[in-house]
Amino acid sequence: MILETLSLLAEINGSITLGLAGLGAGIGIGLVGYGASQATGRNPGAAGKILTISIVAMALAEAIAIYGLILAFGGK
Amino acid sequence: MPSPSLMTQTLESFVPDILAVSMSAQNLFGLPWFTNSTLVALIVLAVVLISFKKATKNMQLVPSGFQNLFEALIELLYDNVEQIVGPKVAKQCFHLVLTIFVYVLVANWFGLLPGVGTIGGLNSEGYVVEPLIRPATADLNMTLGIALSFMILWILLTIKEAGIVGFLKHTFCPPGGIVGFMKYALVPLFLFVGVIEIVSIALRPVSLSLRLYGNVFAGETLLHEMGGLVQTGGVVIDFICRVLVPLPFYFMEILVGALQAMVFALLCTIYIHLSTAHDEEEGH
Known about the structure:
The structure holds two protein chains of two kinds.
Chain A: H1 2-42, H2 47-74
Helix pairs in contact in A: 1-2
Chain B: H1 11-18, H2 36-55, H3 66-85, H4 87-110, E1 120-122, E2 128-131, H5 140-172, H6 181-185, H7 187-202, H8 204-227, H9 235-244, H10 247-276, H11 278-281
Antiparallel strand pairs in B: 1-2
Protein backbone atom coordinates (compact mmCIF):
# COMPACT_ATOMS: atom_id res chain seq x y z
CA MET A 1 0.00 0.00 0.00
CA ILE A 2 2.75 2.44 0.98
CA LEU A 3 4.87 1.32 -1.96
CA GLU A 4 2.03 2.05 -4.37
CA THR A 5 1.37 5.46 -2.86
CA LEU A 6 5.04 6.30 -3.09
CA SER A 7 5.28 5.28 -6.73
CA LEU A 8 2.16 7.31 -7.51
CA LEU A 9 3.66 10.30 -5.73
CA ALA A 10 6.84 9.81 -7.74
CA GLU A 11 4.83 10.16 -10.93
CA ILE A 12 2.97 13.24 -9.74
CA ASN A 13 6.18 14.89 -8.57
CA GLY A 14 7.66 15.09 -12.03
CA SER A 15 4.52 16.70 -13.34
CA ILE A 16 4.36 19.23 -10.47
CA THR A 17 7.87 20.44 -11.31
CA LEU A 18 6.99 20.99 -14.93
CA GLY A 19 3.55 22.40 -14.14
CA LEU A 20 4.75 25.08 -11.76
CA ALA A 21 7.66 26.00 -14.01
CA GLY A 22 5.31 26.35 -16.94
CA LEU A 23 2.94 28.49 -14.88
CA GLY A 24 5.69 30.90 -13.92
CA ALA A 25 7.04 31.07 -17.45
CA GLY A 26 3.61 31.71 -18.91
CA ILE A 27 2.91 34.57 -16.54
CA GLY A 28 6.36 36.04 -17.16
CA ILE A 29 6.09 35.95 -20.93
CA GLY A 30 2.60 37.43 -20.76
CA LEU A 31 3.89 40.34 -18.72
CA VAL A 32 6.70 40.95 -21.19
CA GLY A 33 4.23 40.97 -24.07
CA TYR A 34 1.97 43.39 -22.21
CA GLY A 35 4.79 45.81 -21.57
CA ALA A 36 6.04 45.53 -25.15
CA SER A 37 2.58 46.21 -26.63
CA GLN A 38 2.07 49.25 -24.43
CA ALA A 39 5.51 50.65 -25.23
CA THR A 40 5.01 50.18 -28.97
CA GLY A 41 1.61 51.83 -28.75
CA ARG A 42 3.08 54.91 -27.16
CA ASN A 43 6.12 55.18 -29.41
CA PRO A 44 5.76 53.33 -32.71
CA GLY A 45 9.13 54.55 -33.92
CA ALA A 46 11.01 52.50 -31.36
CA ALA A 47 9.40 49.23 -32.42
CA GLY A 48 12.69 47.67 -33.52
CA LYS A 49 14.47 48.21 -30.22
CA ILE A 50 11.42 47.11 -28.27
CA LEU A 51 11.26 43.92 -30.31
CA THR A 52 14.89 43.11 -29.56
CA ILE A 53 14.54 43.68 -25.83
CA SER A 54 11.29 41.75 -25.63
CA ILE A 55 12.74 38.74 -27.46
CA VAL A 56 15.63 38.57 -25.04
CA ALA A 57 13.30 38.89 -22.04
CA MET A 58 11.02 36.16 -23.36
CA ALA A 59 13.94 33.80 -23.88
CA LEU A 60 15.17 34.39 -20.35
CA ALA A 61 11.71 33.77 -18.91
CA GLU A 62 11.20 30.63 -20.97
CA ALA A 63 14.53 29.17 -19.90
CA ILE A 64 13.17 28.39 -16.45
CA ALA A 65 10.40 26.28 -17.95
CA ILE A 66 13.05 24.47 -20.00
CA TYR A 67 14.96 23.71 -16.81
CA GLY A 68 11.76 22.22 -15.43
CA LEU A 69 11.33 20.10 -18.55
CA ILE A 70 14.83 18.70 -18.32
CA LEU A 71 14.50 18.02 -14.60
CA ALA A 72 11.15 16.32 -14.99
CA PHE A 73 12.35 13.92 -17.66
CA GLY A 74 15.98 13.44 -16.81
CA GLY A 75 15.89 13.41 -13.04
CA LYS A 76 16.59 9.71 -12.90
CA MET B 1 0.02 1.68 -24.16
CA PRO B 2 -0.10 2.09 -20.33
CA SER B 3 -0.80 -0.90 -18.13
CA PRO B 4 -4.25 -1.16 -16.55
CA SER B 5 -3.14 -0.56 -12.99
CA LEU B 6 -1.72 2.94 -12.79
CA MET B 7 -0.61 2.70 -9.21
CA THR B 8 1.98 0.02 -9.72
CA GLN B 9 3.98 1.81 -12.36
CA THR B 10 6.67 4.36 -11.74
CA LEU B 11 7.86 7.02 -14.13
CA GLU B 12 10.80 4.97 -15.31
CA SER B 13 8.64 2.47 -17.10
CA PHE B 14 6.77 5.28 -18.87
CA VAL B 15 9.90 6.84 -20.27
CA PRO B 16 10.41 4.65 -23.36
CA ASP B 17 6.88 5.55 -24.42
CA ILE B 18 7.15 9.25 -23.75
CA LEU B 19 10.65 10.02 -24.95
CA ALA B 20 11.03 9.19 -28.59
CA VAL B 21 14.53 10.64 -28.70
CA SER B 22 17.02 9.51 -26.08
CA MET B 23 18.52 12.25 -23.99
CA SER B 24 22.16 11.51 -24.71
CA ALA B 25 23.75 10.89 -28.05
CA GLN B 26 24.74 7.41 -29.05
CA ASN B 27 28.14 6.16 -30.12
CA LEU B 28 28.75 5.34 -33.74
CA PHE B 29 30.99 2.62 -35.16
CA GLY B 30 31.77 1.38 -31.68
CA LEU B 31 34.10 4.25 -30.87
CA PRO B 32 33.59 5.74 -27.42
CA TRP B 33 34.36 9.31 -28.45
CA PHE B 34 32.46 9.60 -31.71
CA THR B 35 28.70 9.94 -31.40
CA ASN B 36 26.02 10.55 -33.97
CA SER B 37 25.69 14.17 -32.95
CA THR B 38 29.46 14.67 -33.34
CA LEU B 39 29.07 13.55 -36.93
CA VAL B 40 26.37 16.13 -37.51
CA ALA B 41 28.48 18.83 -35.86
CA LEU B 42 31.28 18.11 -38.31
CA ILE B 43 28.86 18.21 -41.25
CA VAL B 44 27.47 21.57 -40.08
CA LEU B 45 31.02 22.89 -39.71
CA ALA B 46 31.83 21.83 -43.26
CA VAL B 47 28.65 23.44 -44.61
CA VAL B 48 29.30 26.75 -42.83
CA LEU B 49 32.96 26.91 -43.86
CA ILE B 50 32.31 26.04 -47.48
CA SER B 51 29.50 28.57 -47.87
CA PHE B 52 31.53 31.36 -46.28
CA LYS B 53 34.49 30.50 -48.46
CA LYS B 54 32.32 30.59 -51.55
CA ALA B 55 30.86 33.97 -50.61
CA THR B 56 34.21 35.72 -50.20
CA LYS B 57 35.78 34.48 -53.40
CA ASN B 58 35.86 37.14 -56.16
CA MET B 59 34.30 39.83 -54.01
CA GLN B 60 32.72 42.56 -56.07
CA LEU B 61 31.56 46.04 -55.19
CA VAL B 62 27.97 45.30 -56.18
CA PRO B 63 27.20 42.00 -54.52
CA SER B 64 25.05 39.25 -55.93
CA GLY B 65 24.23 35.69 -55.02
CA PHE B 66 25.93 34.21 -52.00
CA GLN B 67 27.83 37.38 -51.22
CA ASN B 68 24.61 39.36 -51.17
CA LEU B 69 23.01 36.96 -48.71
CA PHE B 70 25.90 37.10 -46.31
CA GLU B 71 26.25 40.85 -46.55
CA ALA B 72 22.58 41.25 -45.65
CA LEU B 73 23.01 38.93 -42.66
CA ILE B 74 26.12 40.73 -41.44
CA GLU B 75 24.52 44.16 -41.78
CA LEU B 76 21.48 43.00 -39.87
CA LEU B 77 23.56 41.69 -36.99
CA TYR B 78 26.16 44.42 -36.94
CA ASP B 79 23.60 47.18 -36.35
CA ASN B 80 22.19 45.34 -33.37
CA VAL B 81 25.57 44.56 -31.88
CA GLU B 82 26.86 48.08 -32.36
CA GLN B 83 23.83 49.56 -30.66
CA ILE B 84 24.34 47.38 -27.62
CA VAL B 85 28.09 47.35 -27.21
CA GLY B 86 29.33 50.57 -28.78
CA PRO B 87 31.46 51.00 -31.90
CA LYS B 88 34.86 50.39 -30.32
CA VAL B 89 34.17 47.00 -28.77
CA ALA B 90 31.89 45.90 -31.60
CA LYS B 91 34.87 45.64 -33.94
CA GLN B 92 36.55 43.19 -31.60
CA CYS B 93 33.69 40.99 -30.59
CA PHE B 94 31.55 40.90 -33.72
CA HIS B 95 33.25 37.92 -35.32
CA LEU B 96 32.60 35.84 -32.21
CA VAL B 97 28.92 36.77 -32.16
CA LEU B 98 28.53 36.14 -35.90
CA THR B 99 30.18 32.73 -35.67
CA ILE B 100 27.99 31.68 -32.78
CA PHE B 101 24.85 32.88 -34.55
CA VAL B 102 25.51 31.21 -37.89
CA TYR B 103 26.71 27.93 -36.40
CA VAL B 104 23.81 27.58 -33.97
CA LEU B 105 21.32 28.56 -36.69
CA VAL B 106 22.55 25.98 -39.19
CA ALA B 107 22.85 23.31 -36.48
CA ASN B 108 19.28 23.93 -35.30
CA TRP B 109 17.83 23.85 -38.79
CA PHE B 110 19.78 20.76 -39.70
CA GLY B 111 17.55 18.71 -37.45
CA LEU B 112 14.57 19.50 -39.63
CA LEU B 113 15.91 17.84 -42.75
CA PRO B 114 14.22 14.57 -43.66
CA GLY B 115 16.18 11.58 -42.48
CA VAL B 116 17.69 13.11 -39.37
CA GLY B 117 16.68 11.04 -36.40
CA THR B 118 14.67 8.55 -38.39
CA ILE B 119 17.28 6.44 -40.16
CA GLY B 120 19.14 3.99 -38.05
CA GLY B 121 19.07 0.92 -35.88
CA LEU B 122 15.73 -0.41 -34.81
CA ASN B 123 14.68 -1.91 -31.52
CA SER B 124 12.38 -4.87 -31.04
CA GLU B 125 9.13 -3.05 -31.78
CA GLY B 126 10.30 -1.43 -34.98
CA TYR B 127 10.91 2.01 -33.47
CA VAL B 128 14.17 3.73 -34.26
CA VAL B 129 16.18 4.09 -31.10
CA GLU B 130 19.66 4.51 -32.52
CA PRO B 131 19.44 7.13 -35.24
CA LEU B 132 22.37 7.45 -37.56
CA ILE B 133 22.38 11.24 -37.49
CA ARG B 134 20.91 13.49 -34.86
CA PRO B 135 20.71 17.30 -34.58
CA ALA B 136 23.93 18.70 -33.21
CA THR B 137 22.47 21.06 -30.64
CA ALA B 138 20.16 18.39 -29.26
CA ASP B 139 23.17 17.14 -27.33
CA LEU B 140 24.13 18.80 -24.08
CA ASN B 141 27.85 18.30 -24.76
CA MET B 142 27.63 20.48 -27.85
CA THR B 143 25.80 23.41 -26.28
CA LEU B 144 27.96 23.24 -23.16
CA GLY B 145 31.01 23.42 -25.40
CA ILE B 146 29.73 26.52 -27.15
CA ALA B 147 28.82 28.18 -23.85
CA LEU B 148 32.17 27.41 -22.21
CA SER B 149 34.12 28.63 -25.23
CA PHE B 150 32.15 31.84 -25.08
CA MET B 151 32.91 32.26 -21.37
CA ILE B 152 36.64 31.80 -21.90
CA LEU B 153 36.65 34.31 -24.75
CA TRP B 154 34.55 36.70 -22.69
CA ILE B 155 37.14 36.62 -19.89
CA LEU B 156 39.92 37.31 -22.39
CA LEU B 157 37.96 40.16 -23.99
CA THR B 158 37.19 41.73 -20.60
CA ILE B 159 40.81 41.57 -19.51
CA LYS B 160 41.91 43.12 -22.77
CA GLU B 161 39.35 45.91 -22.61
CA ALA B 162 39.20 46.80 -18.95
CA GLY B 163 42.13 45.05 -17.33
CA ILE B 164 41.97 42.76 -14.34
CA VAL B 165 41.98 45.68 -11.90
CA GLY B 166 39.19 47.37 -13.83
CA PHE B 167 37.07 44.25 -13.79
CA LEU B 168 37.52 43.75 -10.06
CA LYS B 169 36.79 47.37 -9.39
CA HIS B 170 33.66 47.13 -11.50
CA THR B 171 32.42 44.15 -9.55
CA PHE B 172 33.40 44.79 -5.98
CA CYS B 173 33.75 48.51 -5.34
CA PRO B 174 30.99 50.99 -4.59
CA PRO B 175 30.09 53.14 -7.58
CA GLY B 176 31.85 56.42 -7.96
CA GLY B 177 29.00 58.78 -7.20
CA ILE B 178 29.17 58.42 -3.42
CA VAL B 179 31.42 60.82 -1.57
CA GLY B 180 32.82 61.07 1.87
CA PHE B 181 32.19 58.84 4.80
CA MET B 182 29.45 56.74 3.18
CA LYS B 183 31.89 55.38 0.64
CA TYR B 184 33.89 53.58 3.29
CA ALA B 185 30.84 52.53 5.26
CA LEU B 186 29.27 50.80 2.26
CA VAL B 187 32.32 48.71 1.33
CA PRO B 188 31.21 45.47 3.10
CA LEU B 189 27.80 45.70 1.45
CA PHE B 190 29.29 45.99 -2.00
CA LEU B 191 31.73 43.20 -1.29
CA PHE B 192 28.72 40.99 -0.67
CA VAL B 193 27.05 42.24 -3.84
CA GLY B 194 30.24 41.40 -5.73
CA VAL B 195 30.19 37.83 -4.46
CA ILE B 196 26.61 37.42 -5.64
CA GLU B 197 27.61 38.81 -9.01
CA ILE B 198 30.45 36.29 -9.30
CA VAL B 199 27.98 33.49 -8.62
CA SER B 200 25.66 34.83 -11.29
CA ILE B 201 28.54 35.00 -13.78
CA ALA B 202 29.47 31.41 -12.99
CA LEU B 203 25.88 30.37 -13.65
CA ARG B 204 25.81 31.85 -17.16
CA PRO B 205 27.21 28.85 -19.07
CA VAL B 206 24.66 26.62 -17.35
CA SER B 207 21.72 28.74 -18.39
CA LEU B 208 23.02 29.35 -21.92
CA SER B 209 23.63 25.68 -22.63
CA LEU B 210 20.47 24.38 -20.98
CA ARG B 211 18.24 26.86 -22.77
CA LEU B 212 19.51 25.90 -26.23
CA TYR B 213 19.60 22.17 -25.47
CA GLY B 214 16.12 22.17 -23.96
CA ASN B 215 14.54 24.02 -26.85
CA VAL B 216 16.04 21.90 -29.62
CA PHE B 217 15.59 18.60 -27.77
CA ALA B 218 11.98 19.40 -26.90
CA GLY B 219 11.31 20.32 -30.53
CA GLU B 220 12.75 17.05 -31.77
CA THR B 221 10.70 15.06 -29.24
CA LEU B 222 7.60 17.04 -30.18
CA LEU B 223 7.99 16.23 -33.87
CA HIS B 224 8.51 12.53 -33.18
CA GLU B 225 5.54 12.36 -30.84
CA MET B 226 3.19 14.23 -33.14
CA GLY B 227 4.10 11.86 -35.91
CA GLY B 228 3.19 8.84 -33.85
CA LEU B 229 -0.01 10.28 -32.45
CA VAL B 230 -2.55 8.76 -34.85
CA GLN B 231 -2.53 4.98 -34.72
CA THR B 232 -5.62 3.70 -36.44
CA GLY B 233 -4.55 0.57 -38.23
CA GLY B 234 -4.63 1.20 -41.92
CA VAL B 235 -1.20 1.79 -43.36
CA VAL B 236 -2.16 4.59 -45.77
CA ILE B 237 -4.10 6.65 -43.20
CA ASP B 238 -1.28 6.23 -40.70
CA PHE B 239 1.32 7.39 -43.18
CA ILE B 240 -0.69 10.42 -44.28
CA CYS B 241 -1.32 11.48 -40.69
CA ARG B 242 2.32 10.88 -39.84
CA VAL B 243 3.27 13.43 -42.46
CA LEU B 244 0.45 15.96 -42.03
CA VAL B 245 0.01 16.19 -38.26
CA PRO B 246 3.53 17.44 -37.44
CA LEU B 247 3.32 20.10 -40.17
CA PRO B 248 2.31 23.10 -37.97
CA PHE B 249 4.91 22.06 -35.42
CA TYR B 250 7.46 21.91 -38.20
CA PHE B 251 6.98 25.61 -38.89
CA MET B 252 7.17 26.30 -35.18
CA GLU B 253 10.47 24.45 -35.08
CA ILE B 254 11.85 26.61 -37.88
CA LEU B 255 10.88 29.70 -35.89
CA VAL B 256 12.26 28.33 -32.63
CA GLY B 257 15.56 27.37 -34.25
CA ALA B 258 16.12 30.86 -35.64
CA LEU B 259 14.90 32.50 -32.44
CA GLN B 260 17.17 30.49 -30.17
CA ALA B 261 20.18 31.24 -32.34
CA MET B 262 19.44 34.95 -32.19
CA VAL B 263 18.82 34.84 -28.46
CA PHE B 264 22.13 33.08 -27.85
CA ALA B 265 24.03 35.65 -29.90
CA LEU B 266 22.23 38.62 -28.34
CA LEU B 267 22.78 37.35 -24.82
CA CYS B 268 26.48 36.95 -25.53
CA THR B 269 26.55 40.54 -26.75
CA ILE B 270 24.77 41.76 -23.63
CA TYR B 271 27.20 39.91 -21.36
CA ILE B 272 30.11 41.53 -23.15
CA HIS B 273 28.44 44.93 -22.81
CA LEU B 274 27.84 44.47 -19.07
CA SER B 275 31.50 43.99 -18.29
CA THR B 276 33.09 46.45 -20.71
CA ALA B 277 30.58 49.27 -20.38
CA HIS B 278 32.34 51.21 -17.65
CA ASP B 279 35.23 51.66 -20.03
CA GLU B 280 33.24 54.41 -21.73
CA GLU B 281 32.38 56.17 -18.51
CA GLU B 282 36.00 57.04 -17.92
CA GLY B 283 36.16 58.70 -21.29
CA HIS B 284 33.69 61.39 -20.31
